[in-house]
Amino acid sequence: MINSRFIKNWIPDDKIDNKKKEEEDEYNEILETIQKQDLRIDKATFQKLYDWKAKRSKKYLEVEKNYELYESALKEILDLKDEEKIKFYLKTNERKKLPGILDPVASTILHFMYPDKFPIKDVRTVGTLRDKGLLTGKVSYNEYRKVILEIRENCGEEFSLRQIDRALFTYNENKELVLKVLEGKKLIDEVAKHLIDPQERIVELIRDLENHFKEKLLKLNDLKTELGMS
Hints:
Blueprint: H1 4-10, H2 18-36, H3 43-53, H4 63-77, H5 82-90, H6 103-113, H7 123-131, H8 141-154, H9 161-182, H10 188-192, H11 199-226
């Protein structure tokens, strides 16, 4: 279940984790710049935004070569209604209008322009929503956004979209660390320093992982039955 308690438990403590603090400081700097510029995103800010979200994918973005395309698109979106803004970015890759811009970065651009309306879509946040049974199958941005907005509403508007995003991301990040231990890829001592969590959070991770493996075993047993092995 993702409720106020879950969000509070999983929002990272920037006082403890320096890396998280640096990322959030950078986020706030980019957000403030864009808001001060009346949602206009200049070349330098656009590069910072992209680097912040997709450092591993930088090779696919050629700002100097394609900035006129990006600049034109960023200006155009200001005049669109909310649903049109979503459709506009979801079609960017299809029509090759914005090279290097896929769903995660597109949603990040929308979020920095309209932080109270559009959540950032990320493989980790989607993973958490799958674990909690809130999403299944192939997930569109509209489906994802609907679930995130419902979480915010169910929490009584207590949290910003950014806070919800950080909590979902941190949960998945920690789950992956525990999985690496279970799969023999890491020793517990190697990841223990990263698991700076109260016991309640560790227990939640273990229970969810237990359910994960139970589901896998059920599927395996179903397959065995189909093959006449049981």
